[in-house]
Design brief:
- This protein has 205 residues and is α+β, with helices and mostly antiparallel strands.
- It has a single domain, classed as Aminopeptidase.
- The protein contains nine helices and six strands, in the order αααββαααβαβαββα.
- Strand 5 and strand 6 form a beta hairpin.
- Bound molecules: coenzyme A.
């Protein structure tokens, strides 16, 4: 059964950590629908870190990214309806949705294999950033992906003006496997880690 409280937490932390990102601008209903797709996808992973103050952060992703994005495209009407509120409040968001539809509905990652997991989103509440929550979430994500049979975990992040986040993944053992132009003017780094190697080298805290 769907955990509504957990979805609310994820939407709230996403909006706080990514205030200017296009998915946030499409509104909380859209975010909720997107993360619901992750939960309902049979090989989806959505993990949260909680403290006395509530939810401190979350990580989401899925095995077999090609199958997940097919699933997402099948749900495009629901996703578009969920974005409607945000578009009515500010019609210019329709342009954002059109410009970014490919990013929502298709991975930038070259990950055709079912035994690959894509870490699609990670966010920590800004007030607790830098205190180890993000690292714990990545450790847990890799362990969960491996438990479901993933041999490697891949992700993308901006190559430019994003040194702290690139450092974050490199420090955790990810290797940058390529840098590519996702769309004109937007360079992304693709990172990968072999799940078996990670579990030999790291002891999740
Ligand atoms: C990136 C993010 C998930 C890292 O989680 P975190 O809990 O802050 O990171 P941790 O405390 O586990 O690790 C800290 C390390 O990450 C780096 N880092 C990246 N972003 C940071 C931030 N906003 N604040 C503090 N450290 C950050 C630091 O350089 C630090 O490395 P160091 O210990 O060698 O100095 C989190 O800061 C965040 O949600 N940022 C905004 C959303 C985002 O950019 N997500 C990634 C999109 S690909």
């Amino acid at each position: 059964m769907e955990d509504r409280g957990r979805l609310d937490d994820v939407v709230e932390v996403h909006a706080a950590a990514f205030p200017r990102f296009f998915m946030t601008q499409l509104g909380p209903r859209f975010l909720r629908e997107y993360y619901r797709c992750v939960i309902q996808y049979p090989r989806g992973i959505l993990l949260t870190e909680d403290s006395g103050q509530g939810c401190d952060g979350f990580v989401s992703g899925f095995l077999d990214p090609a199958a997940f994005y097919r699933d997402l495209r099948n749900r495009r009407v629901r996703l578009a309806l969920a974005a409607l509120g945000g578009v009515i409040v500010r019609p210019s968001r329709l342009l954002i949705l059109r410009a970014n539809y490919g990013r929502v509905a298709g991975s930038a990652v070259q990950a055709g294999e079912p035994r690959t997991a894509e870490l699609s989103s990670i966010a920590v509440r800004p007030s607790v950033a830098g205190s180890g929550v993000g690292s714990r979430l990545v450790h847990r994500f890799i362990a969960a992906a491996r438990a479901q049979g993933a041999e490697r975990v891949v992700l993308t992040t901006d190559a430019a003006d994003n040194a702290a986040v690139n450092h974050f993944y490199q420090r955790l053992g990810f290797t940058c496997v390529r840098t590519f132009e996702a769309r004109p003017g937007r360079m992304l780094n693709e990172y990968a880690i072999v799940t078996s190697r990670f579990e030999r080298c790291e002891t999740p805290s």
